[in-house]
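User: Is it possible to get a 3D structure for a protein together with its bound compound? The compound here is zinc ion. I've pasted both below.
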Amino acid sequence: MHIYEDHGIVIQDQERILVDPHRKRVDADRIFVSHAHSDHVHIGAKNPSTYYMTPLTHGLVEKKIPKAAYAEKMHFNSHVHGKEHKISFVNSGHILGSAQIVVEGEKKVCVTTDMKLQDSIIMPGAEIVPCDVLVIESTFGKKEYKFPEREDVYAQVGKWLKHAQQQNFLPILQGYATGKAQELTKIVNEYSSAIPFVHKNIYEKNAIARAHGHHIGKFELIDHNLKDAEVLILPPNLCDYETLHAISVSAKKSVVTGIATGWPSPSNGHETHFQLSDHADYDQLMNYVGKAEPKQVFTDHGFARELAIAIQKEFKIPARPIEEAKQYVLAQYERVTP
Ligand SMILES: [Zn+2]
Ligand SMILES: [Zn+2]
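Assistant: Yes, that's possible. Here is the predicted structure of the complex:
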C-alpha cells in the first residue's frame, strides 16, 4: 500500500484512490470529496472515474458538478467496495456534510481532511477513527494554537449583539457562506431574539442545509428590507467599506461588524473578533492521534512539519508531512523512519 500526495491524497494498491484532488484532470479509480469548501472540490467532466461525496456535500457543490461527471452520493457510515478496499465516510465535524475518508484493505487508513473535535451548536465534532495509518490535517498544528470553549464564544456573540442593539447599531456578522454562516445563523437564533437577514449566497447554502434536515434556525434573505433588519450575516469578502457604508445608509443606522474565524485576531480594530474555528487546535489534533493509536501518521496542510515532529516525540511513532511522501512507498518509509 502506498500513501502519498499527488494532486490530492493518494492511497494506492492495484487500485488508486484519490481524496480531494486539487485539479480537475486526475488519474484515479475512485475519487472522494470530503466537503464543500472550494479548495477541496475540483470535479472534472472528462474523468471516467466516480466522485463520491455525502448527500449534503453534493447539494452544496451541485453547481460545480459538470453534467458529464460521475458524481455519487454516499451516506455517513455506509461504504463502497473497491477491488481491494472498503471505503466509508465518517463525520469530520468540520462543516455540515463534511467527512473523513476511511479506507480498509491490507491496512486501515483514515484521512481526516479538515476536521475539528469540538461540538458546535449545529453539529457534533469528529468521530475518532482507530486506524493503522492516519493522515491528519495540521492547519493549526502548533502548540500556540489553543481555541476557547465554543459555548463561551457563543455567549460573547450574544452579548455583542445585545450591546449593539441597545445602542441602536446594526450588527453585521461575517463568516464564510459554506460552513461558518450556518453556525452563525443558529447562534443568532439561540443567543438573541433576532432573526438574521443573510446575503443571497448564505441564504442558498442555509436553505440546502435545512432541506437536508439540519436545524439552523430562522433566517431571511436581504432584499429591500434592510430597514427591518436587526442582525445581518455576510460573507467576509463582501464587507468592504463601500458596502458597509451603503448598508448603513439604507438601514438608517450605524453598523458594527464582527468576524468569526479561528485565526487569532485578524481584526484591524474596527471589527470584533470571535474565535470560532472549523479546524482542530493543537490539543485536539494530539488528542485525535492519541486515541486513534495509529502506527504511523502523515500530516497535511499548515504546520505539517511542526505537528509531525510533535507526534514523533509524544507518541514515538513515525510521522511526516504528506507532501514529503511523494516518492515514498509505505514499505520503504517504514524502514527509513525510526
Ligand atoms: Zn474546509
Ligand atoms: Zn481545507
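Helices lie at 55-61, 150-166, 180-191, 200-211, 241-251, 282-292, 304-315, 330-336. The chain has two domains: 2-144+279-336, 150-274.
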